[in-house]
Write a sequence for this structure.
C-alpha cells in the first residue's frame, strides 16, 4: 500500500480518537515526561505536526521562521506557566490553534507575514503555558524534553510534505481537514 496513504489514514484515525485522548491532566517532571507529553496530548500532537506541515507549505524564509517563532514562544509560554503567571483562555487557545491550523492547511490561504508570525506566536504561547502549568518538579529537564519532541514533530510534518512531492497540496488539505475537525471537537 502507498506509504502516504497509510500515513494519511493513520493521522486521520488519530484525529478521530475519543476526547479522552486530549490530555491536559498529564503532568510530570523529568526528561521522559517532557518527551512524552506532546505525544500523549492529541491536541499538542496535532498542533505540532500542523506547524511543521504549514511551515513546509510556505515559501522562502517563512519555512524556518514559523517553527523558529513557535519554538521560541513555546519556551516563553512555558516560563510563564512555570511562574504561574496567568494567561487567559489557554485551553480555548489550544483548541483554536488546532482548528485554525487545520483550516489554514485546508484552505491554503496566503496570509501576510505579520499575520502568520502573530498566529504562530499566539498558538505557541498557549501550548507552552499549558506545558508550564502542568510541570511538577524539575522544570528544566521537562522543558528540554517537550521542546525536543515539539521540534521533532515540526520536522516530521515538514518531511511529510517534502516526501509527497506533487501530492503535497492534496495531503495538506486532507490532513488539514482532519485537524480542523479535531479542533471543532476540542471546542465543543
Amino acid at each position: 500500500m502507498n506509504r502516504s496513504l497509510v500515513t494519511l489514514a493513520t493521522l486521520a484515525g488519530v484525529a478521530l480518537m475519543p476526547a479522552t485522548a486530549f490530555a491536559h491532566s498529564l503532568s510530570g517532571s523529568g526528561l521522559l515526561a517532557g518527551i512524552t507529553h506532546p505525544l500523549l496530548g492529541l491536541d499538542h500532537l496535532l498542533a505540532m505536526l500542523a506547524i511543521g506541515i504549514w511551515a513546509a507549505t510556505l515559501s522562502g524564509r517563512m519555512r524556518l521562521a514559523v517553527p523558529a517563532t513557535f519554538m521560541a514562544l513555546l519556551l516563553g509560554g512555558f516560563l510563564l506557566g512555570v511562574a504561574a503567571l496567568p494567561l487567559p483562555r489557554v485551553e480555548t487557545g489550544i483548541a483554536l490553534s488546532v482548528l485554525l491550523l487545520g483550516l489554514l492547511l485546508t484552505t491554503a490561504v496566503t496570509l501576510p507575514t505579520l499575520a502568520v508570525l502573530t498566529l504562530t506566536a499566539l498558538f505557541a504561547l498557549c501550548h507552552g503555558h499549558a506545558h508550564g502549568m502542568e510541570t511538577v518538579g524539575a522544570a528544566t529537564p521537562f522543558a528540554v524534553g517537550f521542546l525536543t519532541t515539539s521540534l521533532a514533530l515540526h520536522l516530521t510534518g515538514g518531511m511529510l510534505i517534502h516526501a509527497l512531492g506533487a501530492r503535497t497540496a492534496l495531503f495538506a488539505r486532507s490532513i488539514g481537514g482532519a485537524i480542523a475537525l479535531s479542533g471543532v471537537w476540542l471546542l465543543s
Remarks:
- The chain has eight helices and no strands.
- The chain has one domain: 27-187.
- The chain has a mean pLDDT of 86.
